Amino acid sequence: MSTRLARALPYALVGLASAYLYYVAAHIEYEHRAGTLGPDFWPKLVLALAIAVCLFEIARVALSGGRGAVGEIAQLAERAAPGEEAPAPPPESLPRLAAGIALTALYVWLLGPLGFFCATVPYLAAFVVLGGYRRRGVVAAVSGLGTLLMMFFFMKVVYVSLPLGEGAFREVTLFLMRTMGIR
Amino acid sequence: MVEIFQNLGHGFVQLLEPVNLLSLGVGLVLGLLVAVLPGLTLVMGVVLALPFTYSMAITPSIILLTAMYVSGTYAGAWTSILFRVPGEPMDVPLLWDGYTMARRGRAAKALGWTLAAALFGGLCTATAMVMLAQPVAKIALTFSTAEYFALIFFGLTSVVSLGGASLANGLISLFAGLMLATVGVDDTYGSYRFTFGVPILRDGIDYLVVMVGAFGLGEVFMRMGQGFKSAPLESVDKVSTQLPTLREAWAVRSTFVRGTLLGIVVGIVPGAGATVASFLSYGVESQYGRRRHELGNGIPDGIVAPQTAATASVGGAMIPLITMGIPGSGATAIILGAFMLHGLQPGAQVFETSSHIVYAVFASVFAAVIGMCVIGYLATRTLVRVLEFPEVIISAYVVMCCILGAFAARNSITDVWLIVVFGVVGYLCDRFRFPIAPLVLGVILGPIAETNFMTTMISYDNDWTVLFTRPISGVIMFLAIATLVYPFVRWLRRLRRAARGALI
C-alpha cells in the first residue's frame, strides 16, 4: 500500500499544483472581446489536460499498481536488447549533490558584488575539490588560469560585459582588465 | 532542379571562405569531442557553443552549430564499441552489436562499419535535404495556421509517445513546458499571465534558459551526485578503423537504405531526433531484417541500422527548421535560436530572402559529413583519449559555459538564477523519470502552437473542428492522435493479456 502511495504522490502533487495554476489562470485580467477565447483559454486547456493525466495515473496506480503505458523507445530497448546493457550508474551521494547546488547558488549570489574574477576563482576551485579532485596544482591552474582565459575570451572576443563587482573587488577586476588589454 | 544545383554550388564557394572553413573545422572537432564524453550530450554541446557565436556573422555561426550537430551523431559510437560507454543516448543500440563485435576481436571492423554507415546516411540525408527543402517550402507557403498547429501538435505528441519510459510522465513534462511558455505578457491580449508580480517574469522565460538549465546544469548536478565516477574503461591495445569492402557493404545494402530512409523521415517529424531514429531503426531491423535472428551477436546489420538512421536524421530535422521555422529536435531548436539571434527567421520565405545563407549551410552539411569521417578515420585514437581527462574539470567548465551563456543573452543575473532553478528542475526530472525533452520542446514549440491555435480560432469563429476538416491538417491531426493513443492501446492489450494469463 505504501509503495502505491509513494508512486501516486508525485502525480497528486503535480495535480494539485495544476489545479492551483488553473485557479490563477481563471483570474487572469484582460479586456474581453466578443467571440474570442481570451488569454486564459490556452493555459486552462493545458492545465485541464495535466490534471486529467494526473487523475488517470493516480487511479491506475491505485487500481493496478503496475507499470503504465510506455514510449516506443522503452519498448524497443526492452524487446531488442539482446544482452549488452549500458553499465548501471554509480550510487548517488545526496550531501555532495546538495553541496554542489548550494555552491552554485552561492556563486550566482556573489557574482554581482564580487565580480566575475573574484567570484569564479574560488567557485571553480571549490567545485573541482567537491567533485573529488585533489591535485592542488591542477586545481589552481583550472580555477585561476581558466578564469582569466574565460574573462579574456568573453570580454575581449565576444564583447560580453561580465560583472565587475563592487568596491575593492571592482578595482581588482579593472586592474586585470587593463593588464589584459580589455577596455 | 538546375537552380538548386547552382545555388548549392554557390554555397560551396561561400564555404571555402576561411572563416566558414574554420567554423566548420572547429564545429566538427567540438561535436566529436562532445559526443565522445558521456557526461556531455550533443544537445548540451550545441547549447554551450551558442554564446560563442554571439559576435560571429550568421553564416559561420550556423555552420559551426550544424557541424557540431552532424558530427555529434557519429563519435559516440566509438566509445560504445570500444569501451561499452555510450557517448550519447542514441548510441545505446550500438552496444548490442557494435560492442559484441569488438569483444570478438573485430573492433576495427566495427568502427569501420560505423564510419561507412555515418558516411552513407550523412550524404544521403544531405542530398535529400537539398532536394526536398525548396519544394517543401513551396508547399508550406500554402499552409494556414491550422496546418501549422497540426504539425506542431504532431511533433509534440510524437516526442511523448516515441520517447520516454512512461507516457504519463512524458505528457506531464510536456504540459509543464507548455505552461512555462505561457509565462509573461500574452501576445494577443497584452495581459500578464503567471507573472505573480515578479517584474522579470513579464518578459517571459526564454527557452534557451530552460534548455541550458535543464540539459546542461541538470546533467552536471546529477554527475556531481554520482561523484563524477564513470564506469572503468576497458583497456584497448590498438584503435584503428578497418572499412568494410564493397562486397561486404553490398550484402547489407537493404539495411543501409532502410536505416537512412527511416532516419530522414524520423528527422522530419518535429520533436523526434537522432535517438528516436537510432532505436526505431534497430527495432525495425530486429523485426524485418534479413538476419534479424542473428542481431545481438555482433553482426554489421546491428551497427549499420542505428548509425545510418542517427546521422540521416540530421538532414531530415533541418528541413522543417529551414522551411517552416519549426525545430525538429533539441539541437535544431538551438540552431533556430542562433538564426533568430542574428535577425533571420527561418520559414517558407527564407529561400526568397536569404538563399545564399541557406545553401551555404546545406553545403556545410555535405562537408561536415565527409570531414567527420576523415577525422574519424585518422584520429579516433586521439579523440577517445579525452575520456582520460578528469570529468569534474570538464563539468566545471560546462557550468561556467552554462552560466556565461545565460548571462550573455540579456546581461541579466536573473537569467543566471533561472538556469540554476532549471538545473535543479532538470535534475529532479531525471531523478523521478520525467523526460526532459518534452519539457524543452514544450517551451520551444508552445508559443508557436498557441499563436497558431488562437489565430485559427479567431479566423474560423472558434470552430475547432476546422483542424480536422481541412484535408492536410485533418490528416496530420489524426496521425498525431493515433501516435498518442497507440501506446495506450498497447498497454490495455498487455493488461488484458495479463488478466487472461492470471485466469488460466
Q: Beta-strand percentage of chain B?
A: under 5%
Catalogue the unreliable spans of chain A.
none
Kindly name the structural category of chain B.
mainly alpha
Contiguous helical run count of chain B:
21
Q: What helical percentage do the residues of chain B reach?
A: over 70%
Order of helices and strands of chain A: HHHHHH
Work out the number of β strands of chain B. 2
Number of domains of chain A: 2
Shape of chain A: extended
Q: What is the rounded distance between the termini of chain A? A: 66 Å
Measured by residues with Cβ under 8 Å of the partner chain's Cβ, the largest interface is: A-B, 87 and 92 residues
State the distance separating the first and last CA atoms of chain B. Answer: 64 Å
Order of helices and strands of chain B: HHHHHHHHEEHHHHHHHHHHHHH
Mean pLDDT of chain A: 85
Give the strand tally of chain A. Answer: 0
Q: How large, in whole angstroms, is the Cα Rg of chain A?
A: 26 Å
Structural class of chain A: mainly alpha
Counted by DSSP, the helix tally of chain A is 6
Strand content of chain A: under 5%
Give an account of the 3D structure.
The complex is a heterodimer of chains A (183) and B (504). Chain A has 183 residues and is mainly α. Chain A is 71% helix and 0% strand. Chain A is extended, with a radius of gyration of 26 Å. The relative contact order of chain A is 0.07. With 504 residues, chain B is mainly alpha-helical. Chain B is globular and about 65 Å long. Classes of the chains: A mainly alpha (183), B mainly alpha (504). Chains A and B meet through helix 1, helix 2, helix 3, helix 4 and helix 5 of A and helix 6, helix 7, helix 8, strand 2 and helix 9 of B.
Short description:
Chain A has 183 residues and is mostly helical. Chain A has helices spanning 2-26, 41-63, 72-80, 94-130, 136-157, 167-180.
List the helices and strands and how they pair.
The complex is a heterodimer of chains A (183) and B (504).
Chain A: H1 2-26, H2 41-63, H3 72-80, H4 94-130, H5 136-157, H6 167-180
Helix pairs in contact in A: 1-2, 4-5, 4-6
Chain B: H1 2-15, H2 18-36, H3 42-49, H4 58-72, H5 76-83, H6 93-141, H7 145-162, H8 167-182, E1 184-185, E2 192-193, H9 207-225, H10 246-251, H11 253-268, H12 274-288, H13 301-324, H14 330-341, H15 350-353, H16 355-384, H17 391-410, H18 413-431, H19 436-459, H20 466-469, H21 471-503
Helix pairs in contact in B: 1-16, 2-3, 2-4, 2-5, 2-16, 3-4, 3-9, 3-14, 4-14, 4-16, 5-6, 6-11, 6-13, 6-16, 7-8, 7-19, 7-21, 8-19, 9-17, 9-18, 9-19, 11-12, 11-13, 12-13, 17-18
